[in-house]
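From the pipeline queue, job 12 of 40. The input is one protein chain; the requested action is below.

Action: predict structure.
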Amino acid sequence: MIKSPIQKVTENLQNRAIGIIYGSYKPSNTESLNKGILKDQNNLPLDAVVLGKTLPLIKKYIDFNKKYFFIVYPRNKNSDSLHLQIAGIWDPNSLNKEQKDHSQNPHEILKNFDLKDNYFSIRGKLIFVKIPEKEVIIKITPSKLLNNKNKSFKLILKAELPLNLINSFLSIDALREGNALRMENFEVIENKSIIID
C-alpha cells in the first residue's frame, strides 16, 4: 500500500510544518550534496538543505536532472524568503517496494490523499497578527525535543486572521506561491481567544 507523503495527525495538539513540492534538486557542488537549490515545476529556484537522514537517499536514488516529489520542512525570516529543509522523497513508483503497477501517475496518487503539489500543513500557536501586511506568525514547537535540537521556531504566512485568535492553536492548510506560504483555510483546534476592547 502506498503511504501518504504527509501523514495524518496523531495528536490533537500536534505541532508541525511540512509540505510537498514537485521539482528537481541541484546541489551547490558535487562534493557536498547537503546544500543546493530545489527548482519547482516553473523552474523557480528555492533555497534548500538536505537533512542528514535523507542524504543517503539523495545519493543513492536521485537523478539531478529528473523531477521528484520532495517532502520539505519550511522555514522563513519574512513572508517572502522561504527556505526548505528536504526531509524525504515521495516517489510511489520507484521507491515503493509494494507498488507493482508503475503506470499510476504520482500526481493522481497524491490527489487520492487529498494533497497536491505545493501543499503545506502548518499546526501551531498563533502568536502575532500583522493586519496591514496581511501576515500572521505561527509558533511551532516540536513535541519531542531530542537533545534540544528541535527547538521551537516561527513561521510567517500570508493570511488574515482575527486578533482574538492570538494564543490559539491552529491547523492551517497553506499553498506555496513563489517564495511565500499563503493560508488557504484554517481550523481552531484549541481556542485561547483574547478579549479585545
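Job complete. The helical segments are 55-61, 106-112.
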